[in-house]
Amino acid sequence: MTAQEGFAVDPWSITEHRLDLAGLARSESVFALSNGHIGLRANLDEGEPHGLPGTYLNGVFELRPLPYPEGGYGYPESGQSVINVTNGKLVRLLVDDEPFDLRYGELRGHRRSLDFREGVLRREAEWTSPAGRTIKIRSARLVSLTQRAIAAVDYEVEAVDGPVRIVVQSELVANEQLPVGGEGDPRAAAVLEAPLVAEAHHAHGTKATLVHHTRYSNLRLAAAMDHVIEGPDGVSVTSEARHDQARISATTVLRPGERLRMTKFIGYGWSATRSLPAVRDQVEAAITAARYSGWDGLLAEQKEYLEQFWSASDIEIDGDVELQQAVRFALFHVVQAAARSEERAIPAKGLTGPGYDGHSFWDTETFVLPVLTYCLPGAVAQALRWRHSTLPLARERAAQLGLAGAVFPWRTIRGEECSGYWPAGTAAFHIGADIAMAAARYVRATGDVEFERSYGLELLVETARMWRSLGHHDAVGQFRIEGVTGPDEYSAIADNNVFTNLMAQTNLRAAADAVTRHQREAAALGVDTEETAAWRDAAKAMYIPYDEKLGVHPQADGFTLHQAWDFEGTPREKYPLLLHFPYFDLYRKQVVKQADLVLAMQIRGDAFTAEQKARNFAYYERLTVRDSSLSACTQAVMAAEVGQLDLAYDYMAEAALMDLHDLGGNTRDGLHMASLAGACIALVAGFGGMRDYGEVIGFRPRLPAGLVRLAFSMRVRHHLLRVDITHDETTYTLVEGDKVRVQHETEQVVVAVGAPVSRPTVTPPPVERATQPPGREPARRKPHAVSIGGSPVTGGEHLAAE
Amino acid sequence: MTAQEGFAVDPWSITEHRLDLAGLARSESVFALSNGHIGLRANLDEGEPHGLPGTYLNGVFELRPLPYPEGGYGYPESGQSVINVTNGKLVRLLVDDEPFDLRYGELRGHRRSLDFREGVLRREAEWTSPAGRTIKIRSARLVSLTQRAIAAVDYEVEAVDGPVRIVVQSELVANEQLPVGGEGDPRAAAVLEAPLVAEAHHAHGTKATLVHHTRYSNLRLAAAMDHVIEGPDGVSVTSEARHDQARISATTVLRPGERLRMTKFIGYGWSATRSLPAVRDQVEAAITAARYSGWDGLLAEQKEYLEQFWSASDIEIDGDVELQQAVRFALFHVVQAAARSEERAIPAKGLTGPGYDGHSFWDTETFVLPVLTYCLPGAVAQALRWRHSTLPLARERAAQLGLAGAVFPWRTIRGEECSGYWPAGTAAFHIGADIAMAAARYVRATGDVEFERSYGLELLVETARMWRSLGHHDAVGQFRIEGVTGPDEYSAIADNNVFTNLMAQTNLRAAADAVTRHQREAAALGVDTEETAAWRDAAKAMYIPYDEKLGVHPQADGFTLHQAWDFEGTPREKYPLLLHFPYFDLYRKQVVKQADLVLAMQIRGDAFTAEQKARNFAYYERLTVRDSSLSACTQAVMAAEVGQLDLAYDYMAEAALMDLHDLGGNTRDGLHMASLAGACIALVAGFGGMRDYGEVIGFRPRLPAGLVRLAFSMRVRHHLLRVDITHDETTYTLVEGDKVRVQHETEQVVVAVGAPVSRPTVTPPPVERATQPPGREPARRKPHAVSIGGSPVTGGEHLAAE
After folding, report:
1. How far apart are CA A764 and CA A708, in angstroms?
2. A439-470 as b/e, with b when 16 or more CB fall inside 10 Å?
3. What is the torsional sign of CA B771, B772, B775, B778?
4. Residues A378-390, mean pLDDT to the nearest whole number
5. What domain count does chain A have?
6. Is the pLDDT score of A303 beyond 60?
7. Less Cβ around it within 10 Å: N or C end of chain B?
């Protein structure tokens, strides 16, 4: 699929009507299915052609050495890379004596579609073999949101003309050959060859199982399959298995109009500790249960799960159907990434591709969890319990770095630091506060006191300890945090990064507050009142640099004194800058990869006046190139807050279309979970003006001219609140719960069940549109240029990348 | 040799009286011979036992890939490593049927000695074989300072008891097996196995030749040998050669008192472009010439060369014979490293070992060339001509980095950047000014206008262009240089490093001045008056940060605001810090690896008031841990200037004894050329108070209580000046030349031949001794505790390392 072509525009689904071989890898990411535990890229059933075969199990990785030309103390020696595990989605087809392969013969029809309310990837194809025989194929694939270990494929082949001999081979294949990847782009993931060592294989009747372990990380994983086969009389079924392959074959002859249908139940499991029989039995039990549910049962459960989700969490947009589609696509994939991750990390790409080696970063806590907090709060608790489970590693890392408390890794799968470039890895200490604030936010939004007591408190305490030891008081008593890297990766190792210092401030305060609420548990962690007093003192004395002459906050000490990047002299093809300019040059100049100070203004809006926000926003707009996918959404939020609604709309669209339009050019490696989540944030926190800093959740709705209506539901303090915004008024409706206090603009209102409250929507006075570096302006959003039904869409001019 | 044992103390030589197998590698460095083209580690004649076999040819290296866990634009992909070339110094001995190997039988006597006036490594051994036969061996080895391609060995074996059958095998051996090195210490050099590919071999009579090339760097090198053999009647000589080995064997039976003597002439040559016959013929011609000179002739030439050197360049110390020895050891090795390097780099370890991969750094121009400028100026011109020859590569690198002019590599053999860690590599832009100032200094000291016109001018112009493009003017017109790393490697990527900015200032001014002197040549380089005006403007507007509250210069912007390192909490075994603490922590705290601001005060003393110097010195003393060998000498100079003479004396001793006492624990990998040169600087610029910034060279002699007299000679402005300092007076004598103006304290005096001038030596008022981080104080120098003749010496308590 080329950049000129989009997917068909529909508010509830995403569909492709033709197959672009060059864009296969991108479609495989866009149509990927996952439940947070299992991830299946949308490889064609028959395995080939493919862009990048991918079957992932959350937490299954292989170790690989990290080499350094010049080593240093504390550098991680071993990295973790997600691996392509046993492929269970394979269903090969032989038509007479020709393998069904789209590259040969004639593909007369192709359609793939993913309905966000159904959670099933459906495919239809009509194909004429090189020998002239025509068949139709219908397949449907799901990764169950209700049965964690289960994926399933419903595969049907129909003869169109003359009797045809059909063989359907359903397989499990380990150690699939992968295409050789990367051409020096540091963002591409390392490909690991044949990482699985065979332990056991078994096939009998319609069932087969393979058990393997990874060579160095020593994880055991099992895949099993069972089948229901329906067809004309005389279908013969055989089974076989060897080390890296198991196969169930169904053979028959179909006359025109006759069909062979094979329903495949696939089970996955893995463990770092359990025995071979235990892991094997676990997956075989899972497929037994799945077969008991049956295809229709799985389908119904899937639909029910999603219906429940959408009824409480949908975001509706009137006036821009493409954005409507994009935001549902975004929510759907965020849910897929998180639904059943259960004490495992949520990776930057979810389980949709091997990008970033399958690592989790700060963006999970900063972009993904804030969305889930209000729509799937249980997943947030699970994700933070995973972080909590890595505390022993994080404490060890802190000790190695000479710090107190816990230092969480910049990038990891299991919890160990895997970053091989410390200025943009270890130095980004803000990840500690990102995690702590995610925990505090979750507790505030849900009132989950038990979580706070058992998990949140310790996360807050250990990160507060880290901040207290990382910073120091200067001669006049200010608390300074030096030599750190903020979100913007075009600066590094700077002093008093405003984002970091404000986040640390919140972290220190939140920790002290949590200790007050849970004094017994805090005492067990060794916290005393002297320690919390030291945290409060440091928070109070936190130094926040400000450039009085310019009237703006420097991103970090000295930033506004630096030379401006030569934007005029930088041609378009030199973006993303990191691929064309050395770090030393990026670091020492005023050029911003992604929102940093602007993100601080969103997350810590209380620390800035409205005037400062407007001035800062304008200042950083001129410097921000959005070479990261983690930027447009934040810029959208702050653009809306400072009254630049059209600009906010443009940024919102960029965030939302990141993967559907492949704006970063790397959707092939997996979807950008944080940008997808960011699109939701842009709508709710941007146009909805939602802020949740204190006791009461607040809204300052601002609707751009391009939208007619924006409505969203969210779970707040045990209630389900619906917010419905038009240009005239905003209506707050309580769908579940008793009554809730919300703030509209500066007024606090009480919303009770059956008593919606409406208030006028504010239209801000027109302000001058901020300017961006030449060539880096977001595409102007023209929603009315978009029609429904698959016609080309605009909006993808600008390439951003991380 | 253990840390408790020193070499015998003698003012003109260095001697060991016993062989310490555990300390072999260290002795091999200390007794290494070189002429700057060929380097021979002091491996025993018979090759084994060895610490680290080493035979080096300046400029012969192999390429090796530089791997990165996370790559980046502009990272060098290929490194250069010095390789162990064909070993020509091997002379093996068979005694009856036992190989002469010190590890077996009984070594009854061992003595090795290197006389700095003779330039020959002499060895005597008496050995009883396991079978009970006793022999005496005398060998002498030299690397000719007058015949660049030549080394020679004079080897004599004498029977002590009963007739003994002797076989002497003189060899050339390529691809020697090397011990496996390094245990994660990033300072240890990579060992490259079997880097030489055989091209030709030949042996006939007493001559043999091997020709090889390197596999990836594609350099051709040849080694040849010829022999004169004297012994009792009936010496039989055979020759043979194969790919990696050539051998001339002499066999005879010696009766008690009879001797077999073999004089071996070894020739080396290499080329990146010349043909096999050309390179082979070149080395065979060289040994023909050497044999014509004969052993005695080579010895005489060597002695004459060194006599001439010492007569014009000796540094005499009365009152501390160990320091006298150390400084002559230092001067001797500096001369060995530079004498015949001839348009090749002078590596950080000279040609004494594989440390730092054989790379050249900024220390050559900053420490080694300033010494050579006044004693062997021709070598300085050669070294800078090498830099000049790399200008095309440096311009290419500048373009890659987006800068004008030339960016010289932080570490290299041939000229390409080989640093794999840019924050302490590429970011150390000061190397450009270090080179430019070395050129300006050389021209000022020698008046070599032709050099300036042909080489110096272009070096100045291209580095000035770099500075102008690296820095920028801020809103109030100050010229700032941001995101760079100064000499102190415990800080990095800082703004407005004072050392860097002051060096850049000098560079810009010196370039503009040179252009004024050579307008036609400058025009050919494209320089016009607008460009020089821009340089002068930038120099004039150069921003030098100053902390008004503390009354000291911060090393770079914000440095004095940083948290102080917890010196009290850092135990001794945690030094050097870089092996025990992460860079992020070192970078963000006030802790200094090596003189940085203090070096700026030495090289740009004109930019600081006396009061600033005293305050700055005291401030940085408290922070400087001397984890680099490039620090003590500078601290000695500035301690002397601020009147802390005893402290200066202690530092001076540390610099001088760096290798003789193995203070860094890594003398095994090669000698620290810059520290050795630094010891000379500490004496001449420290106690002699020599400064050479302007038209007239100046002296402010200050003698520490521990020394009775210091005298040195130096070549200045075509004259040979001798300075003789006692506590009472300083006498300036012109040894060669007409008359010269020098400054003594604040008075300018004219010294004419035959008319020495004496002035009182100033004794500064006593000042409080500066304090250092606990445990990092330099050892107190107690010169009178040292006796002559090999007894243990003190002074090696403190370990410094780079």
Report:
1. 16
2. bbbbbbbbebeebbbebbbbbbbbbbbbbbeb
3. negative
4. 98
5. 1
6. yes
7. N
Residue A168 belongs to a domain: yes
Average pLDDT for residues A135-145, to the nearest whole number?
98
Given the structure tokens 């304090």, which residue do they identify? B771
* Joined tokens for residue A634: 């934040």
**Among A70, A420, A427, beta carbon nearest to B69:** A420
Interior/surface letters A184-211, b for 16+ CB within 10 angstroms, e for the rest: eebbbbeebeebbeebbbebeebbbbbb
Among B40, B30, B7, CA closest to B150: B40
Contact A73 B563 (CB under 8 A): no
Task: State the CB neighbour count (10 A cutoff) for residue A609.
Answer: 9
- Look at A581 and B73 and tell me if their CB atoms are within 8 Å: yes
| Residue ranges in chain B modelled with pLDDT below 70 | 1-5, 180-191, 783-802
**What tokens appear for B672 in the block?**
């620290």
Distances (CA, A) of A365 to B314, B686, B735: 68, 58, 77
CB atoms within 10 A of CB A49: 13
A342's torsion region: left (phi>0), alpha (psi -120 to 50) or beta? left
Q: How does pLDDT run across A151-160, given as a tens digit for each residue? A: 999 999 999 9
From chain B, the residues in CB contact with A417 under 8 A are none
If one counts every other C-beta atom within 10 angstroms of the C-beta of residue A73, the result is: 17
A489 tagged catalytic: yes
Taking the Cβ of residue A578 and every Cβ of chain B, the question of whether any pair is shorter than 8 Å is answered with yes
Contact B9, B793 (CB under 8 A): yes
Distances (CA, A) of B551 to B548, B608, B612: 5, 12, 7
Q: Is residue B689 part of a domain?
A: no
Give the residue from A73, A579, A590 with the most B CB atoms within 10 Å of its CB, the best one to mutate.
A73
B505 has binding-site annotation: no
Question: In this prediction, does ipTM exceed 0.85?
Answer: yes
Select which of B284, B489, B641, B802 is catalytic: B489
List, in order, residues 6 or more apart from A126 with CB less than 8 Å away: A107, A108, A109, A134, A135, A136, A137, A160
Name the minimum distance, in Å, from the CA of B352 to any CA of chain A. Answer: 22
The reported pLDDT for the residue numbered A693 is 83
CA atoms in the 13 A half-sphere facing the CB of B302: 30
pTM: 0.93
Cα–Cα dist B586/A184, whole Å: 31
Kindly provide the b/e burial profile for residues B351-363, where b requires at least 16 CB atoms within 10 angstroms of the residue's own CB.
Answer: bbbbbbbbbbbbb
What is the structure's pLDDT at B782?
83
- Please report whether residue A575 resides in a domain: no
pLDDT beyond 90 at A773: yes
Q: Assess contact for A379 and A388: CB atoms under 8 A.
A: no
Residue A188 confidence (pLDDT) above 80: no
Residue B693: the pLDDT is: 84
Residue A442 pLDDT: 97
- Domain containing residue B237: 31-65+74-307
Confidence bin at A1 (pLDDT 50/70/90): very low
What pLDDT was estimated at residue A797? 37
**DSSP conformation class of A160:** -
Amino acid symbol at B189: A
* Alpha-carbon span A435 to A460, nearest angstrom: 8
Q: Tell me, what CATH number does B150's domain have? A: 2.70.98.40
Under 8 Å between Cβ of B786 and B768: no
Of all residues in chain B, the one with the smallest CA distance to A483 is: B588
Which entry of A118, A489, A621, A802 is annotated as an active-site residue? A489
Backbone torsions φ then ψ of A99, nearest 5 degrees? -70, 140
Q: What is the structure's pLDDT at B181?
A: 55
Tokens 């080939």, residue located = A48
Which residue in A67, A79, A563 is closest to B482 by CB distance? A563
**In a domain? residue B409:** no
